[in-house]
Design goal:
Largest sheet of chain A: 5 strands, mixed
Largest interface: A-B, 49 and 64 residues
Helix content of chain B: 25-40%
Radius of gyration of chain A: 20 Å
Shape of chain B: elongated
Distance between the termini of chain B: 76 Å
Largest sheet of chain B: 5 strands, antiparallel
Strand content of chain A: 15-25%
Distance between the termini of chain A: 51 Å
Strand order of the largest sheet of chain A: 5-4-3-7-8
Oligomer: heterodimer
Order of helices and strands of chain A: HEEEHHEHEHEEEHE
Strand content of chain B: 15-25%
Shape of chain A: globular
Number of strands of chain B: 26
Number of helices of chain A: 6
Number of helices of chain B: 18
Structural class of chain B: alpha+beta
Chain lengths: 198, 753
Amino acid sequence: MKLLSAVAVVLFAAAPALAAEAPGEAKVGEAAPAFTLKDESGKAHSLSEYKGKVVVLEWTNPECPFVQRHYEAKTMVKTQGALDPSKVVWLAVDSTSTHSASSAKAWKAEQGLKYPVLLDTEGTVGHAYGAKHTPQMYVIDAKGVLRYAGAIDDDPRGRNTANAKNYVKTAVDAVLSGKPVPSSTTEAYGCSVKYKQS
Amino acid sequence: MLVCLGAGGAQAAPVAAGATAEGAKDRGTYRVAAELLTDVSQVRAGDTFRVGVRFRLSPGWHMYWKNPGDSGLATEVAWDTPGTTVDALQWPFPSTFRTPDGFITTYGYADEVLLWASARASEQAQGGLTLSAAVDALVCEVQCLPAQLLLTRTLPVGPASAKDAQASALFDAAALGVPRPAAPAGFSVQVALEQKELTAGKPFSGTVTLAGPALPRAADAFAKDFFVPERIPGVAKLALAPTGTRGTFRLTGEAEPDAPKQAPRLRGVLRLGDARAPSLELDAPLAPVAAAAAGEAAAQAPAPVREVPLKVRPVLPAGSAGVAPGGAPLSLPLVLLFAFLGGALLNLMPCVFPVLALKAYGFSRMVQEERGRVGLHAGAYAGGILAAMLALALAVLGVRAAGRSVGWGFQFQEPLFVAAVAAVLVAFALNLFGVFHVGGAGGGLAEKVDASHGLARSAGEGVLAVVLATPCSAPLLGSAVGFALAAGPFTVLTVFLTLGLGLALPFCVLVLVPGLAKLLPRPGAWMERAKQLLGFALLATTVWLLWVMGGLAGVDGMARLAAFLTAVGLAAWLYGLAQGASGRRRLAGLLASALVVVSVGALSLRFAEGGERRGAGSAEGVAGRAAAWDEGAVAKALESGRPVFVDFTADWCLTCKFNERTVLQREDVQAAFARHKVALFVADWTRRDATIGQKLAAHGRAGVPMYLVLSPRAPHAPEVLPELLTADTVLEALARAAGPTAPGAGCAGPEKC
């Protein structure tokens, strides 16, 4: 046995000291990065606790004109309202470094939102998902696989509000009916996420 | 802060139209001012002129290019010009903006920019022409403000066009900043991808070769953000980096998960040097077009884009037109079959021979014993192999997670590993000579004989088989491991374990097939001699490892290793003495033995990346005339019409050495190299080299050997030769690459070349 363990050690000597693994950005078709974040009321939400349900993540920032436009047009609220709450969970995520539970609370009350606003002030979850815009949307299926990443709709300039193609609704419907998502990635548009710059 | 933007944020109504307007109001201050300009103060009907919008931004604020990058929104200028036709908008070369953490990159303009277009007054124009522009822009500092502006002015029509000197100067300056389309400017662009096809969601890489006047050479002659990609449907990321070879850039990118309707093209703007240098607009097919014509023409005239999905037809090696492409996608079951067969074939390679011989010897001893024991030992041996393969797979995953490139045999690029294997071999050899014995606390003579085949030993032999097998590559093995290394952790583990099963196969067969083991020689007094003889085989292997160390760490490294091996020998001898003793003496012996190894090891095992790279390739490889591999040099040779042969090799790769000695250095092969004027290159992977690693991976290989033959008539379609070369393979490939007539230089006499 001595020899066996000696040679096993030798084999491992081949692996140089391992650097900490820098996770790549989330990819459609792969497992969505796990996270736990507190919402505006201090309640913690983990992605894992929603296994078995479709999860929609909405990257948001109340100060971004694009987000404001969609809130005035009730895009998010209407999209969320049309989904079956027993099958789909909607979570807003705010990665703005300067925001806090109280600012999120105020905004939630102002907009009359029914879904939690998760605070990612450190930006770790935003980076893991590669979220660069507000708004930017992600749809995760019941198995925890990322199935859609991109824009809420195909109307970046808000000129076609009435007939805009809602990518998120399409994606959720496809996932629920077990079909492939027709456009699994789209070019998100909007403001940049105001991450903490250490 | 921004919540009190008022005026409904993004839906701010355009202000009353004039030739100037301001927008993006930030707490009472407008952050952008825009003015509609023409370079004439009066125009004659039918004349051309320039019209544009000049934007001026507050310090620290910027607006966006036609590809905004990771966030933002492209600036939009929509014309409404009755009686005037306006051409496409001209965009000066954009600046690149990055957040301090580098996570978000955007492209646009700070301070001021003039976005302009050529315009033509209609022949019927009279009185005045109304020119209107609706601007939709996003203006950002940290926060972003939308600006929607409506600009309008009237241009008088008269008997002659009158130049507006001040405005003309602005237009001329802006025009200088606009990238020129490459082909009309006398540049040709060639894209050589390392992948036969882009795979959705996967990275791709290659080389972009730019030929034309006044190209800077040095890599540092280029501004940091000298290349800005456009939005390319189907491509998520795209970047270029100068290589230091004139006109050659390294291309890296990543395809989007969804295949687009059309084959993607390389589109973007490239500055020919520093921030003041002129710039080009690139538009070239990204996926290589089937190499019928010389690449030059294909690159200059944008080829018609057929409606093909992202899976572009793989290019066939020259001369194999009509043959099914060899790049058939591998499926996991096929890969596992390859891995199993490759593992079995490894047994026939020179690397594993010492261990095999050892094992055969052990088995012939055991034939005398009851069958169950033999099965146990075969199991232990297979277990050792699988455990080692598992460790290797985990090491591969670990190293890969740390972001380093790995390949088959990569551990031999680590001097400490080479030293450790050499030490184990020396210890093993001394054990065979009877200096000490393994396992069993006793020291009886009978036990000494028996101890040579304890179960632990069988397992250890399995591990050693794996360690020694890795410098050899076998047919099918390269493809299987290459596939695994590009796949997920599960695939890596299954492929490596299957490989291990293949490696263990011969002895499992020996055990499972009744009567087969009986064919082994009968044990007798010769066994002890055979055992000792095998010890010398192991020492010979150590000599080879010493030589590998020379390639890694130079002469000093070799000397250090030799010193350490001597210490290992001394320690083994002390250990053997201790085994014969008892009590305190025994303990002292064991301590002395350990002390010798540890102290000498600590002193000697310090390997610097050894000074001069030994010209192993040039002296040993394909020929004395071989040059070190370099993409730029390869491209040059191809351009001058010479076929190219690239030998990817490493000192520790026995298969490579075998091919070089028995095939590449044969006289007829050497003569063919000379006759076809082949440019020879050696890519030496003895030490780590990311570029070589990437090139191997690009051809689906995990390690060396790899042989590429490139034809000047199909520069982007290299032919990959098999891992085990034969002279015929090489000669035929060279003939194919050289084509029917010897190309290029050296046409003696008037006959057509």
